[in-house]
Every structure is written in structure tokens, then in C-alpha cells.
Sequence to fold (756 residues):
Amino acid sequence: MTTELLLKLPYFTVVVLTLLGLAAMIFKRNLIKILMGLSLMESAVNLFLVATGYRTGGVAPIFTNAPSPHMTLPTVQALTLTSIVIGVATSAMMLSFAMVIYKKYGTVDADKVKKLKG
Amino acid sequence: MMDTFVMRHLPALLIAVPLFAAFLMPLVGSLGPKVRSAWVFLGALATAAVGLALAGKVLATGTVLYVFGAAIPQQTLPPDAAFPIRIMFQVDALSALMVVIASLSSLGIAIYSLAAESKQSGLETFYAMLFLLIAGVLGMVATGDLFNFFVFLEISSLAGAALVAYRVDDGVAVEAGLKYALLSTVGALAVLTAIGILFAQYNALNLASLANRLQFTALDQVALVLLVVPLAMKCGAVPMHFWTPDTYATAPSSVTAFLVVSSQASLYGLFRILFTLYGHLVQFSWATFGWFLIVLGVLSMFVGVTMAIPQKDVKRLMAYHAVSQTGYMLLGVGVGLAVLGDADALAQYGKTAMAGGLFHVINHAMYKGLLFLTAGAVFYRAGTRNLNKLGGLGHDMPWTMVFFMIGALAIAGVPPFNGFASKLLIYESVFRFSPFLSIVAMLVSILTLASFVKVFHAMFLGPRRAEFAAVREVPAPMLAGMALLAVFVVVAGLAPQPFVDHLIVPAVDAVIDRAGYVAAILGGR
Amino acid sequence: MDFFQTLQTGAGAWNPLLWLLALAVALGVALAIRSRGRKDFREGDGRKPFISGNEEPENAGGHVPASNLYWGFLESLKGYYARLVPLHTGVPTDYVVWLLGVMALMLVVALVV
Fold:
């Protein structure tokens, strides 16, 4: 029973990380903290993707002459790599936006950066 | 001619040509502005040519399949396995419709932007991002692989956000870009989670093989919601539309016109998932998701147009109208989805409703693009987007005024322009589904006409104003870009039935025919 | 003519050629009425058309600003706008909350219904 729960541990972590990221994004007002929350959520989704690939008793998918045909899935790891790269590009772009907003508006408070409304 | 290298590899060229243009843009741009403009024009022309050739091939000979990295590009199943293993593009008639929209639109706005952005700096980055956005949109609509769809969705979101924030000197553009990027990323994370859930259950990423293996477990329902709601947000459906006016108002006008096409590519993704991936499942309740689309559609129509009327910024007003017109498309296709199980109703009015919705997609891209380009032309000469400060420009900008009139009459659904043709299809078929919805649609049309009369009066009518004494007509490339879109608006309005017969009805049949989509990949070589 | 086909909607039809003919007839009627005016009036010869007999304001002063154009409509829908416009706050996290709210609502609807 403990083994079963331990095997489900990554999924619990995913849920906790997502909730933390969401809380940071919704309840914080500093733009940088909002972007940190977004980054947490990206990590959560990446962890979810890798965790779905695990097969109990499987070997790592790196062998040519594998000791056993039962391998964990490599496809999800490819998906996760793509997602990490996209996350890096997105974070870089949004952080540079936050920098420019600080230069033009003088503040990074999300409640004050709202010239476009209505 | 039909079997040359180009024709055999058309789907790959669809992505390769704009990417090639994008990545060589900084190098070519360093040779001088005229070389850069020529490169942009050539790139847009080549992309449009490839897109239209591909669409022609699909409409003439059926679904085009292309496997990336295989020895024979059409061989979808590897010789020793029964499931597809590579990334594939599957261009059926619905994808062909979207490719036509993206090609025509990108050509028009590329020509327009040659003159409109000529006074800005950093144009190599601008055009590189623009071609990346074009490549992203074309990839989104042509792909047959779910994760590939996610990648192209992210490409177009990031390139779009960078383009929105292009005018860094005004802080407002960067603020809008940040909002767009934030919402797009959150939505894309939900889409990625859904893809993870589906892959974990069925071990397939290819749309056709997923559609074949899908049962409707509770996890699949979660995945469906996680896929559908962010894509609806990316099209600008109420109540997730708040980013649309901010983004469309502050982006450069050529970018806004293409962001409209990008939203419609997300609409394509929505239809692809609802009809092809999940459609025809016995337990799947078409009525639930059909009514979801209908409710979103009606809300978008009404909230969009009522928020547009008090606006003072002309592009913000037009952005709310984009939200409203997306409601028409959602309404038409939603009615089609709601009656998908009832073969009698489907034949009577379901297919016509879907034809109206899909026809409205291409019409909207053309006349909304035209309207945004005219607003950009006015901004280029007058320097302001505030309707209270503009006035009397009709004396000095007659061609812009004519193009604006064509666009405004088209969006209001006045004959003989193309908006009337698609709206007539929607009114008549939705009326037989539920008269109340049709009446709301007509009311929204009237309010649309009202707000565009307001814009026309504020921008073009009235006496000349002192501060606009130096205003002249816009340069020729801008007029050429607008004319390209206006010609389509007029022609599709005067001859709607050929368009419906040859472009729209195949698309409707393709989107309803899920078995055909699956069989194209799994059933043969 | 094969170019001007009728648009079939399943419940009705619309033919662009007939519409253009109707438009031509309407324009013809309008031109006929217009041609019954005074033939000795040339534009810009100093005489102003008689509208009310009062002094007209200067040309540039007669343009109604855009925000005042639909005052009656906006005034009568004031309650609706007073509730709708403040929802568009401009804060990006509120936008994310709306997206998540709709997602939660749809999850409940899809799993329960």
C-alpha cells in the first residue's frame, strides 16, 4: 500500500506545485512574482509529463541491446524537453516585458499597470 | 508539372518557406532597406503561392498526407507496424480553407506593412517575427499530430506577443503583449496537460490514431475540457475575451490583421478537436458541447458589440467587433455540433449552419483585416486613434474611405458583400434550430452597423480639421494590401455560391466525416 | 450567367444579380428625382441652400464628437454598462481567473451532466 502511494507521489507533487503556482499567480500583485508562479506551473506540467512515462520495473530507454524489453517511455521525455525549451523562451520574453514596463510605468504592480481597460 | 519536387513536398514547403524567410531576414536586412523589402515581398508571395497550390491540390484530389522524415512521404504506416510513428501533416478540406485564409491574408498584410512600418526601426526583427507567426499559423492548421499542434500554437503565441509589443516606446503595447503572453502560456499549459493525459492513456499523439483509440472515460472528459476552453480563449470567446481589445488596439495594424487569422487558427483547432477527435463517440453528448459553443457564441456576439459602442479608440472598437463576429462562427458551428447525432436535422439545417459558420471564418478574416488596415492607414497619416479627435478625413483620403465603407458594410451584413452571404446562411439555419438565437444574431448585426456608422462619421465625415491639414492619401503599398482584401470581400459577396460549393461544403463534409479522417492515415498507404 | 449563381440557404435564396438590378432601378429613381431640381445652380457660386433661415455656424463647429453620438442608447443601458465595464479591469491576473473559472465550470458540467 505504501509502495502504491509512493508510486503516486509524483502526481501529488504535480497537484501541489500547480496549486502553489496558481496561488502565486492569482494572489500576488508584483509582476515578477506572477511570472514566478507561471514558471512553477510550467514545472508542474513538465513533472506530470515525465511521471506519466514511468513503467514499474522498466529499464531506462537508453539501451541498444536492452537487458529487458520493458522500458519506460521515451516519448514523454521528448515532449518534456520541448516544453522546457518553450518555457525558457516564454519566461525570457515575459521577463523582458516586465523590465520594459518598469522603465515606462515606474512600477511593476499589476494593479497599477492598467492603462488599457474598459 | 503535378509531380515535380515542389508539388510532392508541398506540405513541408508550407512551413519551410516562411521559416526560411524568417531566419534569413536579419542577414538579408543588413544589406539595406530595399533588399529587405524585396525579401519580405518575395517571402510572402512564395508562402501564398505554396499555400494556394496546396489548397488547390487538396480540393482537387482529396486529403494530402505528408510524413516528415519518411522515405516515401505518403507512406503513413511504417512497413512493420500498424500504427503511425512519425509526425504527419494531414491537410483535408477544412485545413485547406484555413490555409487559403492564411495565405491571402499574409500576402495582403505583408504588402501593407512594407509602407506602414517603414518609419519604424528594428524592422529585421519585426519581419522575422511576422514570418514566424505566419509559419506558426500555417503549421497549426495543417498538422495531423496533437503535440505538433501544441508546438505551433506556442510558436504563434510567442511570435504574436513579441509583435504586439513591437512599439516599445509606448509602454501600453508592452503591457498588452505581457497580458497576451501570460494568458496564452496558461492556456497552453492546460493544453499540454490534456495532451499528457491522452498520451498516457492511449500511447498515441497522432490525431487519427487517437481518434481511433479514444474511449470516453472520465479522464478523457477532463482532457476535452482542458483542450477546448483554452482554445476558446485564444479565439476571443466571452468571458475569456478580455485580452482581445488590449492586444488588437496597441499592436501595429498589419500585425492585428494577422492576429485575427491566428485566432481563427485556434478556432480551427477547437473544431478539429470537437468533431474529429471526440466526435462520433456514443457516450459523447453532442448537445452539451454544442450548447457550450452556442452559449459562448451568443455571449460573445452580444457582449462584444455592446462593449464596442462606447469605445473611443477605433482599433479597440474593432477588436470588440472581432470578438462579436467570432460569436457568429461559434453559433453556426455550435448549432451544427448540437444536431450532429440527428441525421435528419443535420441534413436540413445543421450542415447549412456549419457552412455559414465556416464561410463566416474566411469572410471575417478578409473584412476584419481590411478594417484594421484602414484604421492603421488613418493612424499612419493622422497620428491618433482617438475617435473624438479625428474628423473630416474623407476629403483627403478617398481610397481609404472607400475601403472602410466596403469593410463596414461587409461586417454589418449588408448585401452585396460577403458578410451578408455568410450571415444569411447562419440566420436561416439557426432560425430553424431556435428562433430566439437567430433574432439575437440579427439584433447584433444592427448594433454592429450602428457602431460602424459612428466610426465612419467620426473618422471620415465632416469638414476638414485644422490639425489634419497636411493629411494625404496613404502610400501605394498600403493601398495595394487593402485592395487585395477588398477585392475578395466584393467578389465573395457577388458570387457567394461558387465559394460555398467549392471551398466551404468540402470543409463541412471533411469536418463531419471523422471516419474518413481516420481511414486516410490508418486505412491505407 | 454562371458567375451570379443564387445562394441557396435551404430555406430561402438570394441572387446577387437580381439585387444588383434592384439597386440599379433604385439609383435610377433617385437620379430621376434629383434631375428635377433647378438647372441654374452651380456649386460654389456663393448662394447657400436654404435650410432654416437662421445663421449657420462655421463649418468646423458642426462636427458631433464620437462619444456623444449614441448618448440615448448608452444612457438607457446605463445599468447594464455599469455592471459590464468594471469587469474589464485591465489586470492580467483577473483574466487568468476568468479562464480558470470557465474551465472549472465546464469540468463540473462535463463530468456531472
